């Protein structure tokens, strides 16, 4: 019986592995350039959200993924505030083929980081005395697929030139 358990453990180690090691805020910034005057104006916000991801390999099978959410909120022509959070995670990822690794780093990991980034951003904005943003969920799988399509189209255009 001990032999079967040992063989099962060895087989499990050889298969794909994914483990979240740490989630942390890498950078956080908030600016309200028109305060306190902005608080005396009618609140009719327009929100511009920019999101980016980047990843880098660390030692061995460890990878850092950073999700950046940048928000600029204007009321009329005045900038009410600019807020940015870089939410990061360290992930242990083993045994994936190149396509699966790319998808994991480009979509799966950002999906895990987004709720933390959204909470950090809302907290930051509320501390600046503005209403919480309440950002809608983001479909990182769709964004990843769009980026792959864009890269394939750009590659095809480069090959034709």
Automatic annotation (TrEMBL):
Keywords: Chaperone, Cytoplasm, Protein transport, Translocation, Transport. Pfam families: SecB (PF02556). GO terms for cellular component: cytoplasm. Gene3D superfamilies: SecB-like. GO terms for molecular function: unfolded protein binding. Its main location: cytoplasm. One of its GO terms (biological process) is protein tetramerization. It comes from the Bacteria. It is found in: Cytoplasm. Homotetramer, a dimer of dimers. One homotetramer interacts with 1 SecA dimer. Belongs to the SecB family. One of the proteins required for the normal export of preproteins out of the cell cytoplasm. It is a molecular chaperone that binds to a subset of precursor proteins, maintaining them in a translocation-competent state. It also specifically binds to its receptor SecA. This is Protein-export protein SecB. It comes from Aquipseudomonas campi. The gene is secB.
């Amino acid at each position: 019986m001990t032999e079967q358990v040992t063989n099962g453990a060895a087989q499990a180690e050889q298969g794909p592995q994914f483990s979240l090691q740490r989630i942390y805020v890498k950078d956080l910034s908030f600016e309200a350039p028109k305060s306190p005057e902005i608080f005396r104006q009618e609140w009719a916000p327009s929100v511009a959200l920019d999101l980016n991801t980047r990843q880098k390999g660390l030692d061995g099978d460890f990878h850092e993924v950073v999700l950046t959410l940048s928000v600029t909120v204007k009321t009329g022509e005045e900038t009410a505030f600019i807020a940015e959070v870089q939410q990061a995670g360290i992930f242990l990822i083993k045994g994936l083929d190149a396509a699966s690794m790319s998808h994991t780093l480009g979509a799966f990991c950002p999906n895990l980081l987004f709720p933390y980034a959204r909470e950090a951003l809302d907290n930051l904005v509320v501390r600046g005395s503005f209403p919480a943003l309440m950002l809608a969920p983001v479909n990182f799988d769709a964004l990843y697929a769009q980026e792959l399509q864009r890269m394939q189209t750009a590659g095809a255009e480069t090959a034709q030139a």
